[in-house]
Amino acid sequence: MIGDVAQGATTIPPTASPEVEFISLSHLNPSTELEPVASRGIDLPYFRRYVRALEDAGYDYTLLPYGSGSADSFVVASAVGQLTERIRPIVALRPNTTFPTVGAQKLATLDQLTEGRAVVHLISGGSDAEQARQGDYLPKERRYARTSEYIDIVRRAWTEPAPFDHDGEFYKFDGFGPGFAPYYSPIPISIGGQSDEAFAVGGAKADIFSFWGEPLADLRTEIDRVHEIARAAGRTTLPRIWVTFRPIIDRTDELAWQKAHRYVTRIGENFQRHGLGGQRYRQDTPQNVGSQRALAFAERSELYDRALWTRTAAVTNAAGASTALVGSPETVAAAILDYVDQGASLVSIRGYDTLADAVDYGRYILPLVRQELAHRRATGRRGTLQAEHPGNYGADYAQYATAVRP
């Protein structure tokens, strides 16, 4: 059924999202996985150029990542808010680093400064070693329980009209509030992860649930799982689904595959040589279930569905979001629509040549996806993009994928 669109099916599946919004990730300097730059600082002219490029390209959100050795995500998000008029900054926040009443205050302040654009992505922590760098020794299986309590507190801090006390498993305080309010409504809360604990908390409480790029059938199963948990919790509004990819595009599928093989060789060499992204302590089996799943998919096959490539995950030990979509802009846009058809309404795309890719995606991919969704709204039927650009559902694509080897 998933491949029906390659055969010309025009019926919109009942799981399809009627909308999609695009997310990128903000980069602070020109360093990339292809061309590492030995810097831990912010290149301000580059950062300004990058954020403005996202706005000009038509992205809806940008994620401000967080790590023990990176820039502070709140401060960077505030800068993004002032450098743009429309983009919504997503603050990556670890509950162990910011007390929940303070986190609520900081997020509401950002929301006021950006006139209602703030979003928060809560990171419970997938690596004991990384958590310990900032003094967090809570076992991994308890970190999502802390996140659950954190969500309850920040939401109450945003809405409670009178002072309140709290005495929970992880946090205790007396007489807090009323807290500083968001611009006009509670701030959307995103959660990601593939552990049982992540699903339990995210399904019951998150506004957004985040996945890395997976094969379509596997992702559909995971979406069903999140939504079943949400319904069991009595929710009538289900979490939005966020999926992340690292597209590699060129004018044709064949040229894109030539680029992809050049890229993966350089990326693999750089990870081995430089330990990019602090990955030296992650050379063994990763602790987080998301990375374990990505590596399992890569071991099973390099190529899935229309355009999903897993070799980029294999060479980086699945260090963060690393699965690629490979092909022409039309093929990659069609592949993104396959995920929209499975229920994704938030799609994060960021490349390996960061600034150039962000510009190219805005120029060549976002308009194609939005044009197709506009066609669906107007006609109640699929357009022709997915049928005309079959990618791996066609005869030649797999040959391109395997023809060029480093």
List the defining traits of the structure above.
single chain, 406 residues, TIM Barrel, 8-stranded parallel beta barrel, 4-stranded mixed beta sheet, 14 helices, 44% helix
Helicity range: 40-55%
The main pleated sheet reads as: 8 strands, parallel, barrel
Low-confidence stretches: 277-282
| Ends apart, CA distance between termini | 35 Å
Here the CATH topology equals TIM Barrel
Corresponding CATH architecture: Alpha-Beta Barrel
Specify the CATH homologous superfamily: Luciferase-like domain
Overview of this protein structure:
Pfam families: Bac_luciferase. Residues 40-345 form the Luciferase-like domain. It is a single chain. This protein is α/β, with parallel strands linked by helices and 406 residues long. It has one domain (2-403): Luciferase-like domain (TIM Barrel), CATH 3.20.20.30. The chain has 14 helices and 14 strands.
Summarize the structure.
This protein has 14 helices and 14 strands. The chain has helices spanning 44-57, 73-83, 100-113, 128-132, 140-159, 196-205, 216-232, 253-274, 289-300, 311-315, 329-341, 354-379, 385-388, 397-403, and strands spanning 21-25, 61-64, 88-93, 119-122, 164-167, 172-176, 189-192, 208-212, 240-245, 248-249, 303-304, 308-309, 324-327, 344-349. The strands form three sheets. An eight-stranded parallel beta barrel has the order 1-2-3-4-7-8-9-14, surrounded by six helices. Strands 10-13-12-11 form a four-stranded mixed β-sheet, sandwiched between helices.
